[in-house]
Amino acid sequence: MLVKNIDFLLTFKCPAECQHCSYKAGPNRTGVIKQKDASRYLKELTKMQSLKSVWVHGGEPFLYFDYLEYIIKEANRLAIPRIGVITNSFWAKDEKSANKKLERLKKAGLTVVTFSSDFFHQEFIPLEYVRNALMSAVAIGFDNIYVDSYFVDDINSYNYFNEFTRKNLEMLEMINGIEFHQFPMSVEGRSTNLIEYLKLHDKIPSGDCPLPFWIDGNLENPETIEIDYEGNVTLCPGISIGNTNLQSLTKIIHNYNVENHPILSFIFKEGPIGLLKIAKEQGFQNKIQYANECHLCYELRKFLQPLYSFSLAPKEGY
Predict the structure, then answer these.
(1) Are 13 and 90 in contact (CB under 8 A)?
(2) How far is CA 45 from CA 6, 35, 154, 264, in A?
(3) Which domains does the chain have, with CATH numbers?
(4) DSSP SS3 for 202
(5) In which residue ranges of the chain is pLDDT below 50?
(6) Which residues contact 309 (CB under 8 A, 6 or more apart)?
(7) What is the C-alpha separation between 24 and 13, in angstroms, rounded?
(8) pLDDT score at 214
(9) Cα angle vertex 89, ends 106, 146, to 5°?
(10) pLDDT, tens only, 243-255
(11) What are the Cα distances from residue 163, in Å, to 26, 129, 149, 156, 167?
């Protein structure tokens, strides 16, 4: 397993409680990655191989600004070339406030900023705050400035959520120097409450596992790992390959073998439908239709989570 990228899920606490959130982040969540742990992870990884990128997100990383700044400084000190953060902009009530924070992070070594903007985030964060943050980021100058937006069902689907998002993006697109990314929401976590707005299928999806776009590589050799404050080392949200409180990150990576993982081994060989057999053996009864393989996988993992709590973590995502 040759890890090239690490994502720190700094916290699952967030001022927003978005309907599409895979990890069910929100105001009532607690916990943050300790600075000494983040530093240890980075040192372990850079001793094994060169890292291409470090990202910090959550939850909302700006809630723990000093921790965020520390991780950026550590990554910069270790000469990791691409250092990014993902934020909902709750902190950018005006451009002066936005400038103050982004200038500090730029000085610390931040190279890329991603701002989340869509129906889900704008239920809680005024679009004006996102605009303030974008204007500030453009003025300060970063290698890349992105706006990521998530759509219900499909990017081209017409529904209330998506139309709201499109109208907001039209206003943001007037700002130069920004790259816009659009994704269909993943059907897991809190987003399963939105299945009435999805195209569901009678036939159980039987295709391969469509890995999250940020992982790179494949299940045999994933290039990206995520680490949360509980020490869970995850690939897809909710699938852990180890916990750093029980074993060093170095050993977790060296010992990783997809065919030995109690959950990923089935997904690797047969796709998400591979979990259906073991779920049925435990009493699973299929009662719903599914939007896609990811939706099926999540519902099966949710059922199996109490039996595989070590491999299906963090628990709160289920």
Answers:
(1) no
(2) 9, 16, 36, 23
(3) 5-197+213-256 (3.20.20.70)
(4) coil
(5) none
(6) 315
(7) 9
(8) 83
(9) 65
(10) 999 999 999 999 9
(11) 25, 20, 12, 10, 6
As given in the structure block, the two tokens for residue 48 are 């094994």
The encoded tokens of residue 268 equal 């690797």
Write 217-221 long-range contacts (CB < 8 A, 24+): 217/2, 219/258, 219/264, 219/267, 219/268, 220/258, 220/268, 221/1, 221/2
Which tokens belong to 158?
């017409």
Q: Could you say which DSSP state residue 285 is in?
A: -
Amino acid at 19: Q
Contact call for residues 134 and 115 (beta carbons, < 8 A): yes
Q: Is the dihedral of CA 153, 155, 159, 161 positive or negative?
A: positive
First to last CA, the chain: 27
**Residue type at 230 in one-letter notation:** E
CB contact at 8 A, 15 and 62: no
Calpha distance 204→297 (Å, rounded): 11
Decide: 197 and 156 in contact? Cβ < 8 Å: no
CA-angle at 84, arms to 82 and 88, nearest 5°: 165
Residue 109 structure tokens:
């070594």
**Digit-coded pLDDT (tens) for 37-80:** 999 999 999 999 899 999 999 999 999 999 999 999 999 999 99
Write down the H helix ranges in the chain: 35-48, 65-77, 95-108, 119-122, 127-140, 160-172, 249-255, 264-270, 274-281, 293-304
User: Apex CA 232: angle with CA 229 and CA 234, to 5°?
Assistant: 120
Tally of residues, the chain: 318
Could you give the 3-state DSSP secondary structure of residue 255?
A: helix
Three-state DSSP class for residue 177: coil
